[in-house]
Amino acid sequence: MTPTQPETMAEEGRRTAVRADNLAVVSEAEASLVVKELYAEFRERFGRPQIPGILQCFATHPPLLEHMMGLAESMLFSEGALGRKNKEMLATFVSSRNKCAYCADSHGYFLRMNGGSSDLLDAVIACDVQADVLGAENAVLLKFVGKVTDAADSICPADIAELRDCGWTDLQIAEAIHLAALFACFNRVVNSFGLHSQGMLAIYHDELNSREVVSIAKPIKSEDGGSAS
Fold this sequence. Notes:
The protein has helices at residues 5-13, 33-46, 53-58, 62-76, 84-97, 101-113, 118-125, 135-151, 157-165, 170-193, 200-217. It is mainly alpha-helical. It has a single domain (5-201), classed as AhpD-like. Helix 1 (5-13) packs across helix 11, helix 2 (33-46) packs parallel to helix 4 (62-76) and helix 5 (84-97) packs antiparallel against helix 6 (101-113).
């Protein structure tokens, strides 16, 4: 799981101490030997320089941290049945619906990194299931995931039939349910600890804007090798 250049850029750009307003997380400086070893394992397995704040929350119970790392790798940071782009779309949507700025920002960033357009991101962050950019299939999927998030007890066979009619397989539907439930946990942990947003989307957009400026400013060379400007 080697990170792309923009991913590394965003991680490097936010190398600051994790801020949690309500309950202390386990920083690397204060971590036990077991937790330090798990943090090192995270860097090796995921190829990311920064230990995310959410993992520092889970580190208050080291066995939970270990299991969550495995769960993230196998369920979220993998293609699976839905594909990584769709998973990040669902993660961002559920996080926005649960008012979790931390997770909506980080998974909105990963949605962009996995091919999601800025228009798609805007629609998902706004939880706008009517947006044209979604297409019929994604609109039905997000509507379903919203129901799983808000009123899972009301899910009925007709909901599953609607998803199947749009082309979603039972395995994909099951994976969507698992992701929605997983982020119900993640969002509540993050919000309860009081983690601040990492600002990964802002760093990503700043980098894109700076590259556009450099591209515009760079002189165009003529065929003879000289500047055409």
